[in-house]
Q: What sequence folds into this?
C-alpha cells in the first residue's frame, strides 16, 4: 500500500528530520561513516513509523499517542554524533587524547546498533502480522527488501568505521560482537517493557528508554570486565570515559543504579522461592505475608546498597575510602554552601508539594497544566545549583533518581507499610500518560534536567549545554503547554495534541530566558565570552525536539 510523501510527512517528522540535518551539516569528513549510518537510521525509522501508525495493537503502546518511532530511534545516536563532532574539534586543538574519541565512537555505534536492532524487530513483527492476514495491516515485498537493504548497508558502514579504529582484525570482530549483543539486548528489553507495562508508553518512548538503558549498563559491564580481566578485553576496547578517568560521582551514580537493578531481580527471585517452598502449605494471614515481604525487601535493599554496590564501585575505581564515606567527605568539604542548598531544596519541595497536592484533589484545573508548576519549580531548584555547585548537583541528581526508583518499586509491589500510601499520593499527580502500572512523569522531568548536565561532562566548548534541559523543560515546555492548551488550534500531526502555537510560545520563552541568562552567567564568571545567537539556537533546537517528544 503506497503512501504519498506529502501525506507521510507531518510536522513532527519534519522537525525531527530538520534536527538531524542540522547535525549532519556540521560534520567533518572524518565522521562520514557515522553520517551515513545516521542517515540510514533516519530513513529506516521513518519507514517503520509510517507502517507502525496502522498497527498500534501489535505493540501494546499507549492509546492516543503517536508512535514516535523515528524520534525515539534517532535521538540518542544524534546526541552521540553531536558529542563526536565536539570531541573532533577538541582533538584537532590537542585538548583530548585519541582514546577519548575512540570511546565515544564505540558509544555511537552501540547506540545506533540498539536502535537498528529494535527497528528490524518491529519490521519483522509487522511483516509476520501481514503474512498472518491481519486485517489492520498490510506489508509488501518491497517493504521487506527496503528494511533488509537498510540493515545491510548499516552493517557495512559500521564494519568500515570500526576497522579504522581497530589495530587487528580480531579486535574488529570483538567490537562487532559487542555491538551485536547490544542490539539483541535492546530487542529483548523492549519486548519485556511493552509486555510487562502495556499501554504505558509509545513505541518511540520505549525505544528511547531501551537504547539508553542498554548503552548505560553495557558501558558498566564493559568497564567491569576490562578491570577484572584485561586478558579478555584489551584496554583500548573500553577507554576510560573521556580518555583519562571516570569521576567518583559518575561511578557512584552508576553503582547505585546497578545495585537497584540487581536488587529488583534478587527480591523477585527470593519471593518466588519463598512462595514455591513455603507458600503452598503456609496458611498465614495476608498481613503477615505483607510484613514478611517488607522485611525481605528492606533487608535486601540495605545489603545491596551498603555492601554489593560499593564493592563494585571500588573495583572499577580506586577509592581511598568507602564510597559512602567519600560522599560524606564530599558534602562536608564545603558544608555551608552544600547544606544550605539542601535546606533550600527541601523547603521548596515541602511548600510546593503541600500546596499543589491539596489543589490537585479539589481543583478543576487539568492535571497536565497543574504539573507544569513543578517544571517551574525545577528551574528555581536546579538553576542556582548548576551555576554555583555543579558537581554537587550531579550527585544530587543521582540521589534523587535512586530515591524515585525505590519509591516506584515500593509503589508497584505495594510494599507494606509505604506502598499503598505512596500510590495514593502519586495518583494525585497522574494524567493520561501515566497508569496504575507505571508512573513515569517525575522520572521524565528529572532525567530531562539531569542528562544534559551529565552528558556535557568532560570537554565541553558549549557552556550553555548543561542548561538545555532545565530551560527547555522548565520554561519552554511549560509555556508551550499553557499557550497550546488555551490558544492552540493548528496541530503538528493528526494523532498528536501538540500545536504550532504552543511550540512557538515555547521557543520564544527559551530565547527570552537565554537573553537573561547569558549576562547573568557572564557576571558570575561562569562563562567569559559567549556567542548568544549560536547558544540560543542550540537551546531552541533542544526545546523543539523536547516538545515533539512530549504528549499533551
A:
Amino acid at each position: 500500500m503506497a503512501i504519498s510523501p506529502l501525506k507521510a510527512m507531518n510536522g513532527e517528522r519534519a522537525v525531527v528530520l530538520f534536527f538531524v540535518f542540522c547535525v549532519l551539516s556540521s560534520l567533518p569528513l572524518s565522521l562520514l561513516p557515522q553520517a551515513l549510518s545516521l542517515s540510514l537510521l533516519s530513513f529506516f525509522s521513518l519507514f517503520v513509523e509510517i507502517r507502525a501508525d496502522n498497527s498500534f495493537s501489535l505493540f501494546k503502546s499507549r492509546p492516543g499517542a503517536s508512535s514516535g518511532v523515528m524520534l525515539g530511534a534517532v535521538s540518542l545516536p544524534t546526541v552521540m554524533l553531536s558529542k563526536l563532532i565536539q570531541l573532533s574539534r577538541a582533538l584537532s586543538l590537542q585538548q583530548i587524547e585519541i582514546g577519548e574519541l575512540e570511546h565515544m565512537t564505540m558509544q555511537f555505534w552501540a547506540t545506533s546498533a540498539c536502535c537498528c536492532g529494535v527497528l528490524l524487530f518491529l519490521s519483522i513483527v509487522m511483516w509476520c502480522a501481514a503474512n498472518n492476514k491481519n486485517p489492520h495491516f498490510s506489508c509488501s515485498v518491497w517493504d521487506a527488501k527496503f528494511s533488509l537493504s537498510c540493515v545491510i548497508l548499516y552493517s557495512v558502514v559500521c564494519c568500515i568505521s570500526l576497522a579504522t579504529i581497530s589495530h587487528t582484525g580480531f579486535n574488529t570482530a570483538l567490537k562487532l560482537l559487542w555491538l551485536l549483543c547490544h542490539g539483541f539486548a535492546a530487542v529483548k528489553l523492549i519486548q519485556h517493557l511493552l509486555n510487562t507495562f502495556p499501554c504505558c508508553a509509545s513505541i518511540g518512548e520505549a525505544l528511547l528508554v531501551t537504547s539508553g538503558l542498554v548503552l548505560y549498563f553495557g558501558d558498566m559491564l564493559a568497564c567491569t570486565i576490562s578491570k577484572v580481566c584485561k586478558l579478555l578485553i584489551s584496554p583500548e576496547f573500553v577507554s576510560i570515559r573521556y580518555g583519562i578517568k571516570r569521576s567518583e560521582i559518575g561511578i557512584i551514580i552508576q553503582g547505585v543504579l546497578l545495585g537497584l537493578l540487581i536488587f529488583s531481580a534478587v527480591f523477585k527471585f527470593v519471593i518466588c522461592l519463598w512462595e514455591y517452598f513455603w507458600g503452598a502449605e503456609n496458611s498465614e494471614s495476608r498481613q503477615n505475608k505483607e510484613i514478611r515481604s517488607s522485611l525481605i525487601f528492606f533487608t535486601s535493599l540495605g545489603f545491596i546498597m551498603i555492601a554489593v554496590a560499593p564493592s563494585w564501585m571500588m573495583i572499577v575505581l580506586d577509592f581511598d575510602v568507602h564510597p559512602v564515606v567519600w560522599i560524606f567527605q564530599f558534602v562536608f568539604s564545603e558544608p555551608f554552601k552544600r547544606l544550605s542548598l539542601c535546606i533550600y531544596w527541601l523547603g521548596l519541595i515541602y511548600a510546593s508539594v503541600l500546596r499543589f497536592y491539596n489543589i490537585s484533589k479539589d481543583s478543576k484545573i487539568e492535571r497536565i497544566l497543574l504539573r507544569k508548576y513543578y517544571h517551574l519549580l525545577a528551574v528555581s531548584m536546579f538553576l542556582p545549583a548548576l551555576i554555583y555547585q555543579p558537581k554537587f548537583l550531579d550527585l544530587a541528581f543521582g540521589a534523587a533518581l535512586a530515591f524515585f526508583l525505590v519509591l516506584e518499586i515500593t509503589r508497584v509491589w505495594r510494599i507494606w507499610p509505604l506502598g499503598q500510601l505512596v500510590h495514593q499520593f502519586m495518583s494525585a499527580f497522574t494524567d493520561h500518560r501515566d497508569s496504575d502500572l507505571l508512573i513515569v512523569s517525575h522520572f521524565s522531568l528529572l532525567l530531562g534536567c539531569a542528562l544534559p548536565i551529565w552528558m556535557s561532562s568532560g570537554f565541553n566548548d558549549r557552556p550553555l549545554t548543561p542548561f538545555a534541559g532545565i530551560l527547555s523543560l522548565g520554561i519552554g515546555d511549560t509555556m508551550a503547554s499553557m499557550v497550546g492548551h488555551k490558544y492552540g488550534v493548528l496541530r503538528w500531526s493528526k494523532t498528536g495534541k501538540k500545536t504550532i502555537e504552543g511550540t512557538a510560545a515555547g521557543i520564544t520563552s527559551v530565547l527570552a530566558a537565554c537573553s537573561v541568562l547569558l549576562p547573568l552567567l557572564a557576571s558570575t564568571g561562569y562563562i567569559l565570552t559567549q556567542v548568544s545567537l549560536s547558544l540560543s539556537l542550540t537551546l531552541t533546537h533542544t526545546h523543539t525536539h523536547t516538545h515533539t517528544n512530549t504528549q499533551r
About this structure: The radius of gyration is 24 Å. Confidence is low (pLDDT under 50) at residues 235-244, 528-537, 548-552.
